[in-house]
Structures are given as structure tokens and as C-alpha cells.
Amino acid sequence: MTRTPVPGTRRRILQTAARLFKEHGARAVGMQQVVEETGLGKSALYREFTSKDELVRAWVAELHDHAWAQIDSAIARHEGDPARQLLAVVEHAQESTQDSDAHGCTFYNTSAEFRDPGHPGRREAVDHLERLRERLSALATAARATDPDALADMLMLIISGLYANAATLGPSGPAARSVAAARILIDQHVPAHVPTPEGRRA
């Protein structure tokens, strides 16, 4: 007889897994630990997620959606000024490291933990980072940067360095200079402009 899933079970599992993955790293946490922490039986867990790989993938996918909602919101605050929107992405990244419990960037961390290119969680993490790079390049193109792809790549390096430094040396260390570094970089690659309501240069 097939048991009917209890409403909220999937959410409960994901919330518990997210906490454990953040505290111990996704690779170090086993399915049995998730079972014990949720208080659910193994059958309930495996009914929602057929394997740990699938659980990690779902966790990263959920973080991906949450991160993009925040990035889109940061960008939307500077509509019509793509150069300022580029800086807003870095500002958002810096703000996200202010939490004293921050452990770096989940997407970079997951990619480092699961080295197999075919791992579902790693694929989700890499997809997020590739989309971020593409978004930065598109904004740089809209801002008429001299070399949009180069500017996007250098901003990606600032963002990754920001997360790494904030996690090790704290948000008040070198990470605190990330926005200033990004501003200098953007100013060097984007000609001076006056944004118009349509987002075009005057």
C-alpha cells in the first residue's frame, strides 16, 4: 500500500539539509543524519529524494532561485544605468557576507566539494555561476564597456575573492574593499555617461 506523503515533508527535509550542509559541508552529511535530524523515517526521506545526490541538487537549485531573486532586485533598483547595475551585483555579494555565520559562496563551495563534473549538485552550482557571468557580460555590453567579457570575468574574480576572504579573514578584511575595487574596474572599462530613462547613453 502506497502511503500518502505528509504535506510539508519536502520543505522540512530541505530546511534541515540546508542547515546541516551549511554547518558541516554537503559532502560530510549523510542521509542517516538527515533522517535523525528531521525525525522522519527513511522511507519518508527517500520518497522525496531518491539519493543524497538528488537532495544536494534540490538544495542548490533552491539557493539558485533565492539568489537570483535577490540579484534581480538589486539590479532593478538602478534601472536605466547598466554600469551602476554591475556595481549593484558586487554590492549585493558584499552585503551577503555580513552575516557572522557566513561560510563563503555555496555555489563555489559545492563545486569544490563535488569534483565530478557530472554530479547533480555541482552541475546546478556551475550553472548558477555561468548564468551570473552571462548576466554580468550582458550588463557590461549594455553599458558599452570596451571589452564586456573581460569586464565580466574580472568582476567574477572580485566576487569569488570577496566570498573567500570574507569566510576566512572576515567581512571587515580585504573583502570590505571589493565594491571599491569593482568601482575602479568599471570606471576603467565603461566610458563616462549620463543614463537616460531608456537605459541608453546620452
Automatic annotation (TrEMBL):
Residues 30-49 bind DNA. GO terms for molecular function: DNA binding. Gene3D superfamilies: Tetracycline Repressor, domain 2 (1.10.357.10). It comes from the Bacteria. Keywords: DNA-binding, Transcription, Transcription regulation. The keyword Repressor does not apply. The keyword Hydrolase does not apply. Residues 7-67 form the HTH tetR-type domain. PANTHER family: HTH-TYPE TRANSCRIPTIONAL REGULATOR YJDC, TRANSCRIPTIONAL REGULATORY PROTEIN. This is DNA-binding transcriptional regulator, AcrR family. It comes from Nonomuraea wenchangensis.
